[in-house]
Specification:
By secondary structure, the chain is an alpha/beta fold. It has helices at residues 42-49, 114-117, 121-134, 151-162, 174-182, 196-203, 221-227, 248-253, 265-268, 271-286, 303-311, and strands spanning 2-7, 17-21, 30-40, 58-59, 64-71, 83-86, 97-101, 106-107, 142-145, 166-171, 187-190, 209-214, 228-236, 258-260, 294-299, 318-322. The chain is globular, with a radius of gyration of 20 Å. It comes from Polaromonas aquatica.
């Protein structure tokens, strides 16, 4: 038996319920994993509220680390006792133990602790695919990154510094600005008292930036477009403030701009590529270029409180549930 968070209707954090569920032996191509850390991501809130569809009743969460207890027939590259993490697969990571498709499991290298890996599976891999695949950064660019003190943001700050990119990061408070700068963000814009586009133009000598990474969405869309150079790119990698609707004629008027809404699934598979991405993320950690630990932890049964904290915009960095 296992403890797991489930929800039977969409809505606020109160719909999340802790239940006891049956966990059987792994079947062909499967592995049973006992979790040591479960990441809380904003996408979990999208599923809970119904912005993203889920077949109810449903588990929640797609991102966790743990130890393999058993494997099913046909599994050859994962074994009992392996430390693993994952970031894709069926919803249900908010649990202490579960059966998973073995093909989505990634072995954790020696030198990367479970506590670090719990903050890196989705968030570190997101930084990798944004900076290395969606808009490949070569070094020397000046970029705008929204929510620089968030879970992905603090990793992005460090990654940008490591590859020689000047990162302008938006934050909501002076306290978050100090944290972002401590993690390598070159310039910060405190959105509660500064105009984003005006500050970006000031920092860049009026040129603007070639790319904006925007996980906020509705509230920052206009500012993001106003920060871009002609033929610049808006990478809309999240919509925490609401969905983005864009008039394509506006893109032409503002300089023939490009917009993409990337999804991890289209950048992570096949498995061999996923493992290469993970190697790069873990390599950054092992080389000392990225340091990451949970800024907030909650017991599994307090998942609703973790969601409330994340939605309040009061969290910094990564939030992790402890089974």
């Amino acid at each position: 038996m296992a403890k797991a968070i489930r929800f039977y209707e969409t809505g606020g954090p109160e719909v999340l319920k802790l239940e006891t569920v049956a966990v059987g032996e792994p079947g062909p191509g499967q592995a049973r994993v006992r979790h040591t850390g479960i990441a809380v991501n904003f996408i979990d809130i999208y599923f809970r509220t119904g912005r993203y569809p889920a077949q109810l009743p449903s588990g929640l969460g797609s991102d966790a680390v743990g130890v393999v207890e058993a494997v099913g027939p046909g599994v050859t590259d994962i074994a009992a006792g392996d430390r693993v993490g994952y970031l894709i697969g069926p919803q249900g990571a908010y649990s202490d133990v579960r059966v998973m498709p073995a093909e989505v499991l990634i072995k954790l290298p020696d030198g990367v602790s479970d506590s670090t890996a719990a903050t890196l599976m989705m968030k570190g891999m997101t930084a990798q695919y944004l900076f290395r695949q969606v808009f490949p950064l070569k070094g020397g660019e000046t970029i705008l990154y929204h929510a620089a003190a968030g879970g992905v943001g603090l990793i992005a700050c460090q990654w940008a510094k490591a590859i020689g990119v000047t990162m302008i990061g938006t934050v909501s408070t002076d306290e978050k600005a100090a944290i972002a700068k401590a993690n390598g963000c070159t310039h910060t814009i405190v959105t509660s008292r500064e105009n984003i586009a005006e500050r970006v133009r000031e920092i860049t000598g009026g040129k603007g930036v070639p790319v904006v990474f925007d996980s906020v969405g509705k509230d920052t869309l206009e500012a993001s477009l106003n920060c871009l150079q002609p033929r610049g790119a808006l990478v809309s990698n999240g919509t925490s403030s609401g969905p983005v609707v864009i008039d394509t004629m506006l893109l032409a008027a503002k300089g023939s701009l490009w917009v993409t809404r990337p999804a991890m699934m289209h950048y992570i598979m096949p498995r061999a590529h996923m493992l290469e991405m993970a190697d790069e993320v873990f390599g950054m950690v092992l080389e000392g270029k990225i340091k990451s630990e949970a800024s907030q932890t909650f017991p599994l049964e307090a998942a609703a409180d973790a969601h409330r904290a994340l939605e309040s915009r009061k969290t910094v960095g990564a939030t992790v549930l402890l089974p």
